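Input record (one chain):
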Amino acid sequence: MSTSAHHAAPTSFIRRWVFSVDHKVIGLQYLFTGFAFLILGTLLSLLIRWQLGFPGKALPFMGHLAPNGMPGGVMLPDYYHMAFTMHATIMIFFAVIPILVGGFGNYLVPLMIGADDMAFPRLNMASYWVYLTSGLVMLYSFFTGTGAAKAGWFAYPPLSAVEPVGQTLWIISLMILAISSLMGSINFITTVLNLRAPGMTMFRMPLTVWAQFITAILLLLALPSLTVGVACLLLDRVAGTSFFMPAGLIIGGNTLERSGGNPLLWQHLFWFFGHPEVYIVIMPAMGIVSDVISTFSRRPIFGYQGMVYALGGIAGLGFIVWGHHMFTSGMNPTLGTAFMMSTVVIAVPSAIKTFNWLGTMWKGSIRFKPPMLCAVGFLSMFIIGGLTGIFSAVTPVDIYIHNTYFIIGHFHFMMVGGALFGMFAATYFWVPKMFGRMMNETLGRIHIVITFVLFNLVFYPMFILGIAGEPRRLFDPTFYPGLVHLQPIRMFMSVCAILMFCTQGLFIFNLFWSIFNGKKAENNPWESNTLEWTTTSPPPFYNYESVPQVYRGPYEYSQLGRAADWLAQSEPSNG
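The corresponding structure, as predicted from the sequence alone:
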């Protein structure tokens, strides 16, 4: 089905590059906006690492954060709480998901299924501008007199119900963002179901498309829980309701006279969204890495249908494991055991994917180009994050390590390591298609190797700190005499974090230099099979001169009887 009749190609700069209905331009808007938020979120993380690595040491540019006679540039607890709250909020909601789903998903899905655009182009444009509005509201919260939200990205009440106005803006921002995400989810699902090229059956779709499709379903089902939760929290803050506010709460020496609400209700609503959110973040990266590994191993994906079912299994099980975030909340031990078992079971489809990736690489003719190095880095991070997640899933162990730095380490290996290397893999892999220019491979290899080493040096010691009992969200660990001897580890992690951030300058330079001055890319520089490589680099406005016909699956590499080791999906068998 063609959508060409929906709208004409734009001629003015504003309609082509600003208020565009072209899925490729909208994808780039999501990408560059998401990368800007990614830099901001990383800078906030460096403030956190400075405070933990060098507590009491001043930062020259923070002199204005020193009221009440504090030494110039020393971070106060309020600012620390704001930093870790906004760091997590920005990274999860405004950087990683918009890059992987809004950016690469928007750009690639129509191209990879042979469509000329998304099903609802104007709705697609609106989803970006609503997302940007949400981000601006979140950024504005920094400039309120009392600062941005400080109750953590999970916003547990009653603290989040009594925080200053920055918390209200945090809530409003997420309500606006939910509208954008629902727009995008409906568009992705409709596009995949209705706009596939002739011959593109569901089981001929690349795993990148499958991952984006299942992620859209996850968003559609999980977001209502978060939306209802933040709406009730907003009413508690501004309308005097008591959804989450317990009776008799004392604030500033005064007893709050309200009927008894239940703070645990918020935790159930939030984590019913929050755990599928983990897979909303990581699943697009799984699809990207699957395509990259197959392409650069020159082998078909091992167990393609099993990979699809594993993605679906992860998504389905993700909705019944939210309670493992609440093992220490006083839940019934029988219920805790049920959540423990369901969490352990979710390791099965994850392991299937891991072994299938390894099986794809086994005896392959591996080409260690930058995208493949990123994919191997992703696989390493995913294994470490997954194995440490099993410890967190077991109730007796979790009671000890809950809210320690062990959980921070696990979370960052899965969400940051996995998503970050997925983003890098997608960028190195598809920039030639997006801009018609090749990125520098030498710079790419240097960037990936150094980032991989420094990432492990930053986050692996968190497991050591967690086992030693260091609590997360701790402003000054030197207040705890039993943790003082671990300070050299914190300093080491902080220095490595600063170095890792500086290393990303190589990536930024490589990306922008290549876009304008890189070597011109061929239409299919990686000799890949999927449809997007059969059109020009960059693609024309409607993607294809004519609607492609699909004859086979996306991973038919190294077929017997052929001189070339690849066979495009749109190439007839006798071609």
